[in-house]
Design brief:
The protein is built from seven helices and eight strands; from the N terminus they run H-E-E-H-H-H-H-E-E-E-E-E-E-H-H. By secondary structure, it is an alpha+beta fold. The protein has a domain at about 15-140: PAS domain (Beta-Lactamase), CATH 3.30.450. Strand 7 (about 115-125) and strand 8 form a beta hairpin. Helix 6 packs antiparallel against helix 7 (about 160-195). It starts with 16 loop residues before the first helix and ends with a helix.
Length: about 200
């Protein structure tokens, strides 16, 4: 039962601050938190799994040191585009949704890069002084979706294309459902950060 205040209104149930880190680490969305100098201050388990990293290997490091561009891809522009988005967030103090971005991920064990595509949203957390204290970097791995689009374009027409189109639409529906869930989680995290 939720406690009530003296005037009969329901008092909000709040997550104890001491438990917040444990809850954050288990959120299903992919979240990285960085400070205004782009130093990684937190990453949840899902983010680490998707990027083939470990908390202790990335927390405390500069974002672009931990996640450099693929040196074997001369057209790699992930670092440049992400930096531009983060600077925009710092300047405007408003969220910035990036276009789908190819940003390959380095396997810590082998050192090789794996092709990845991401849908990213960068959300500022404003401190009491009115400036950005942290940025929540929320990403969704859309590599499968991009591969399906490429395959569909290569096979336009016929039964194979129809199967790919059906699979693409299903993947897009799943992605939209994940976006909605992530939006709800971001709102909860934003409220917790203010609380």
């Amino acid at each position: 039962m939720t406690p009530t205040s003296e005037d009969g209104a329901m008092d909000p149930v709040r997550l104890p601050t001491s438990e917040f880190a444990g809850v954050f680490e288990k959120t299903p969305g992919l979240y990285l938190i960085i400070d205004p100098s782009f130093t990684i201050v937190a990453a949840n388990d899902a983010y680490c799994a998707a990027t083939m990293t470990r908390h202790d290997a990335i927390v405390g490091r500069h974002l672009f040191e931990a996640f450099p561009d693929n040196p074997d891809d001369s057209s790699a522009d992930g670092v440049e585009n992400l930096r531009s988005s983060l600077l925009k967030v710092l300047k405007s103090r408003q969220p910035d949704r990036m276009n789908i971005q190819k940003y390959d991920i380095r396997d810590a064990g082998s050192g090789t890069f794996s092709e990845r595509y991401w849908s990213s949203l960068n959300v500022p957390v404003i401190g009491p002084d009115g400036y950005v204290k942290w940025i929540i970097h929320s990403v969704e791995d859309v590599t499968e979706l991009m591969n399906l689009r490429t395959e569909f374009a290569a096979r336009r027409g016929g039964a194979a294309a129809q199967r790919l189109l059906t699979q693409l639409r299903e993947t897009e529906r799943e992605l939209e459902a994940e976006r909605c869930e992530n939006a709800e989680l971001r709102e909860t995290l934003r409220k917790q950060a203010k609380g």
